[in-house]
Every structure is written in structure tokens, then in C-alpha cells.
Amino acid sequence: MPQFFIAIFIILLTVAAYLAMMKVYQRFPYPFFIPVLTTTILIIVLLMTFHISYNGYMIGGQWINSLLGPAVVALAYPLYKQRHVLLTYSFPIIGGVFVGLFSGMISGLLFARMFGIDRDLILSIIPKSITTPVAIQIATGIGGVPSMTVVFVMIAGFSGVLLGPMILKWVRIRSSLGRGIAFGSASHALGTSKAFEYGELAVSMSSVSMTLSAVLGSLFGPLVVWLFHI
Amino acid sequence: MKEQYLILKAVKIILQVAVLYAFFAVGEAVHLLFGLPVPGSIIGLLFMLICLIFNIIPVKIIENGANFLLSFLPLLFIPAMAGVINYPALFSGNGAILLLVVVMSTIVTMAAAGMASQLLEQRVNKRKEKKKCRNSLSRSL
Predict the structure, then answer these.
(1) I need a labelling partner for A135 at 20 to 30 A (CA). Which of A121, A150, B32, B48 fits?
(2) B117 is in which domain, residue-wise?
(3) For the segment B117-132, what is each residue's pLDDT rounded down to a tens digit?
(4) Looking at the structure, do residues B31 and B78 belong to the same domain, yes or no?
């Protein structure tokens, strides 16, 4: 029974922290104030100051986490609503996702090699632009360290969300389609949640590219490893 | 009256989230059963999309639940994110290099995917315009 109350308390705390950070973001809409980032930092600080382990936090956290599966399924709804646009632009979507997928895996690999990073870490970096559950499987398949991959996936998500608006301005991506595909291919579901700030078309583009990257990534990840003889 | 409406809406959202959860569970089962490399949530999404397109289930059944979950999407990541706490090594010197590699690669990925898709989109739009011109021309003739 106390487990139950702890779980409820943690869930309420997390939701309250998120809503408060949301208010902060509305007041100060700077990229570094996005609620995911600020709430995560707040929670880490709380856990550290009160010496609570991550496992302890997950007594409640796992319930929030368990909604991620149905939330990914829910992305079918914006995809369905935009189905005609998706069909018309299937060529740029598939093209953009392919370019994103391969540039993501290959650039990660080359940069990592440049800095002389160990083989098993390079293998863990390769699937970093793909949504966590798929990235874990790809990493396992090609011989990487899954728990490190989770961290890299998060960094890819955060850096895309934080730097995305700037990058898109630099390379002059103005269309909702281009923005959505950029966010979905580089920063998976986290990028998709950022795409909500650019409208419904950007969201469906982002979720379709995230989905496509996941499906194609699980097929092409091993190919990239084989091609570069790691 | 208003309270009743709110309760009704909450029940509706809970039931619709349950439908979405059922699709996720089916996807997960298919993933395990056939040992597919694609995870259960993505399989569930594809099933859901197929069901919506072929009118096997009406959009109304999931509309509110989907909107609800998607409006809180960033919140759902927070517990997984907080897991970085278990990797203090990431904040040391070696970690900084790894961070740099991933950030640089993400910048490249984003720019490449965005540029490629925008370029291809412009080509599709041009083709569409040409078609439109041709149609209006033939009509005026």
C-alpha cells in the first residue's frame, strides 16, 4: 500500500513540476526553457538533494513512462488527418528521411572515429537519431551498449530541440514539410513534440519521418556497420 | 450540468486511451511473437493507421484520447530522461567528447534531412503547378 501512495505522490509531483515549467516557458519562450528540459533538470536536482535513487523515482515514473507506447500509437491520428498531404508528398518525405537516416548514422560514425572513440561506443552512437525503443534494438543487434545508446538518443533529442530553430534558419528551411522532416529524422519523438510549435502539418511530417526512420533504421543500421567495416 | 459534462469527457478520454493502449499491446505481442526488429509501439501505430484508413474503426473512437496524450507528449519523456542520473561518467571529460560528437552529428542530420526534403518538395510543387497550367490551358482552348 505505501508503494501505491509513493507512486501517486511521484506522479502528481512530476505533473505539477511540468505544468509549472510550462507556465515558465510561456512567460520566457527561450529554447533553453522548454518544459521537458527544465522539468527533467528540476527532477534530477530533487532526486539528488533528497538522495532518492532513480529506481525509487521510477516507482511512480514507470506509470508515466507506460503511456509512451499508446502515445506513439496516438501519432496515427495526425498522420490519418494529413493522409492526402502525405500521399502527395511521399517522394520528398521518403527522400528526406533516407538522407536524414544515412547522414545521421554515417556522420555519427565518422565524427566518433575522428575523436578516436572506442568501437563499442561508436556502435552505440550509430542509432542515436532513432526513437529509443528501436534504437535499443538496433544497438543490441550491431553490438553496441544499449544503455549508452539511450543516453545518446536523449542527447540527439535535446540538441535537436534546442538547436533546431537555429539550424533551420541557417540552412533556410521554411516549409512545414522540411521542418517536420528535419525534426523527426534527427530528433525522433522529442523533435516531434517540438514540431507542435510549427503546426499540425509539421507534426505529421515529423511523426511520419520518425516512424519511417525507425522502420528503415532497423533494416539499414547493420548495413552501415558492414559498409564501414567497424 | 457542467460537472457532469466534465466527468463524461474524462471517462471518454480514459476509454479512448484504453483503445490506444490495446493497439500498443497488440503491436507488442506481434513484435514478440514474430521477433520483428521494429518495436511494438510502431507496429501498433501502423495497425491503427490501417484501421483508420480502411474505416475499420471510426476516428471518433480515438480522437479525444489521441489529442489528450499528444498534448502531454513531452511530459511522458521526463521519467526516461531523468535516467541520465545513472550515467555520471557522461559529465566528465570523455563524456564531453561523446556529447560533442552526438550534437555535431545531430546538426548534420537535421540540416541534411531538412534541405533534401525541402528541395524535393519544391520539385513536386513545380510539377503540380505545371499540371495546373496545362489543365487551365486546355480548358481555355
Answers:
(1) B48
(2) 87-141
(3) 999 999 988 888 887 7
(4) yes
